[in-house]
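Retry 2 of 3 after timeout on previous attempt. Resubmitting structure tokens to design endpoint.
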């Protein structure tokens, strides 16, 4: 026997589905907007530093003021391949959003990690992959790094994107 759905029930069903889609799309927009907002905030913070040495000190300070990364996470599976110094990155996915953790002995690169994590943490993999990383150039940090460190920054960004892609 085939069950039929009344028009009234069908209307309610369509309304509920529509609301669910609206909530989901709003959540996506809000994490995308959060990424944009965080990028603007970090750019403003670095622009307020007039001298490049002040920018580098800010970067180091940001790196030192970050949640601890336990030795148990410093494993070969979390090691970022290709960097000139050892860099470890881990991501945890919760409720469809990624939260990155990482560490390196390099004060400057640790600051880079924290800046990137602060911008992209608690965002969906889709939003991370669709985000623009050009904000990092606006910080005007890379122009004061060695070519080796610049390559390290690019490798770290690629790792963040790779983790996001593998979590789609």
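Retry 2 succeeded. Sequence:
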């Amino acid at each position: 026997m085939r069950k039929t759905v009344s028009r009234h029930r069908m209307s309610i069903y369509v309304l509920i589905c529509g609301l669910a889609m609206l909530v989901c799309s709003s959540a996506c927009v809000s994490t995308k907007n959060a990424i944009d907002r965080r990028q603007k905030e970090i750019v403003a913070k670095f622009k307020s530093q007039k001298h490049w040495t002040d920018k580098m000190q800010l970067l180091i300070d940001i790196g030192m003021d970050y949640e601890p990364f336990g030795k148990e996470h410093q494993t070969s599976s979390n090691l970022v391949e290709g960097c000139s110094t050892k860099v470890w990155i881990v991501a945890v996915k919760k409720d469809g959003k990624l939260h990155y953790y990482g560490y390196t002995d390099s004060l400057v690169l640790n600051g880079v990690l924290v800046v990137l994590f602060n911008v992209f943490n608690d965002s969906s993999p889709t939003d991370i992959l669709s985000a623009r990383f050009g904000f990092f150039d606006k910080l005007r940090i890379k122009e004061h790094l060695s070519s080796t460190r610049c390559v390290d920054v690019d490798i770290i960004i690629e790792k963040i994107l790779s983790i996001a892609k593998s979590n789609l």
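Attempt log closed. The chain has one domain: 7-166.
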